[in-house]
Automatic annotation (TrEMBL):
GO terms for molecular function: UDP-glucuronate decarboxylase activity. Its cofactor is NAD(+). This is UDP-glucuronate decarboxylase. The keyword NAD applies. It is found in: Golgi apparatus, Golgi stack membrane. Pathway: Nucleotide-sugar biosynthesis; UDP-alpha-D-xylose biosynthesis; UDP-alpha-D-xylose from UDP-alpha-D-glucuronate: step 1/1. It is a single-pass type II membrane protein.
Amino acid sequence: MLGLAKRVKARFLLASTSEVYGSPEEHPQNEEYWGHVNCVGPRACYDEGKRVAETLTYSYARQDNVDVRVARIFNTFGPRMNCNDGRVVSNFILQALRDEDITIYGNGSATRSFQYVHDLVDGLIALMGSDCTEPVNLGNPQEFSIKEFADMVIGLVNEQKDQPSTSKVMYLPAVTDDPQRRKPDISRAKERLRWEPRVSVRGGLQETSGGLRDYS
Ligand SMILES: O=c1ccn([C@@H]2O[C@H](COP(=O)(O)OP(=O)(O)O[C@H]3OC[C@@H](O)[C@H](O)[C@H]3O)[C@@H](O)[C@H]2O)c(=O)[nH]1
């Protein structure tokens, strides 16, 4: 793709990820942070794959003047997301809708920041229209522990169901190398793109769980 962008002189967008920060030792994470990744761990293929994608992108930018934009995308959700993607948002909503146990990996103290898909799309459009060639975090800085998030999802689903959900929280073994904290510093996006998230996590979850009802 980078070779193609070079040939046709296209602006190139890399959809990178917060995973490039690995299990961060700095909090929140800004774009200057180099990350903390176990290169031989079970998550390494994804983390290192995305990191080398960034490396190649900036190599083409330096050597061949390819016009690049790099978005580091934090956990994103929204209507019509794949209900089987295994991520926490779809898992918890479906489990609550189906009265199944809510599966928390570890003790529920790990944190994540969730962004609604419309905000992400606005951010990507703003990035592509900007002169910002450095990596930019796109995420919602509102941070939840996974236990807090489980409680919020159960509460929201209960508002939508005829009968309250009977789901209980079940604690399963922690996932190896699961990052314990993750929250974007979005100063650069605010300053350079004039962008920040507008949809609350709660509002976005209401839209998403409405859509996932068809799969319950
Ligand atoms: O059923 C579940 C699913 C997940 N989790 C936990 O919830 C947290 C979030 O896990 P997710 O699988 O949703 O995803 P992550 O936040 O780790 O990464 C995600 O967001 C950033 C993107 O760049 C990645 O591509 C995406 O996988 C983790 O601590 C995970 O262990 C549960 O406790 N239970």
